[in-house]
Design brief:
Length: about 260
């Protein structure tokens, strides 16, 4: 690999060739002049990332789960029914995960990180492309091109994971101490638990528009997820009320977290 990596103490590493692959499967990237070269969170232990409840570890667990499900869908070993279940689980996790990032993480990152606007803008564009591809699959599930669209979506998801773990999330580690990383992690988890779980290409990618339009949609998404094909009216009404209340609490928590001044 060339020059030895520096330790966690300074949070930096020597530049890798853009085609050189890290042990986690991540490849190096070109960086703009003056940009900080940071250690990917995929290459650091839980303690160095603020512990199991930190936003960095929560993100990494979701990314690992997504990767495992995409591999399982693609490896040919699953039945058609199993692949249908895997696809639904992937879609639900992709959209809830991304919505929570855009509501909680990226506003904070834009505020505290050099080049934060550029970095988050690139990831938001990836999210929109993933949204559009999955919406196409959901709209036309019998189209013979569906498998191709799904593989395109998987490739974009993996690129998004690399960008986040190698470039965006290390900047949160540099900006905040362990306690704040855990606080952000709790806010992100609360939003993720009540976020939309299906593609909605017309929903903005940034607050407050994403929350104003996405939270009501999340209630209906979760009704569809939990009560497929309908169900007793009382159960649907109960889920609707619980979902709306939880979503409102999550958004308030996220806004408070994003507005707190940066502290280490």
């Amino acid at each position: 690999m060339g020059a030895a990596l520096r330790g966690d103490s300074d949070g930096t590493e020597p530049r890798r060739n853009r085609h050189e692959q890290s042990p986690s499967g991540h490849r190096g990237h070109h960086h703009r002049a003056g940009a900080t070269v940071t250690v990917s969170i995929s290459r650091r232990g839980a303690a160095a990332l603020g512990g199991g409840g930190s936003i960095l570890m929560r993100q990494r667990r979701d990314h690992a789960r997504l990767d495992a499900m995409m591999n399982r869908w693609s490896d040919g070993g699953a039945t058609d029914d199993e692949r249908d279940v895997l696809w639904r689980d992937i879609v639900q996790l992709v959209f809830s995960h991304a919505f929570a990032e855009e509501t909680v993480l990226w506003p904070v990152l834009r505020r505290v990180a050099p080049h934060g606007e550029e970095l988050t803008g690139r990831v938001e564009a990836e999210h929109q492309a993933i949204n559009d591809l999955i919406a196409r699959v959901e709209k036309s599930p019998d189209d013979p091109r569906c498998a191709e669209w799904i593989q395109e979506a998987f490739a974009l998801i993996r690129q998004d994971i690399r960008d986040e773990e190698d470039e965006l999330l290390p900047r949160l580690r540099a900006a905040f101490g362990d306690r704040r990383l855990r606080s952000i992690g709790a806010a992100w988890e609360a939003v993720r638990a009540t976020a939309p779980t299906r593609p909605h290409p017309g929903v903005p990618r940034r607050p407050p528009g994403n929350a104003l339009r996405g939270v009501p949609l999340s209630v209906f998404d979760r009704l569809r997820d939990r009560v497929p094909g309908g169900g007793p009216a009382a159960r649907r009404a109960s889920l609707l009320a619980c979902g709306a209340a939880a979503a409102a609490v999550a958004v308030v928590l996220a806004v408070r977290t994003a507005r707190r001044p940066a502290r280490t």
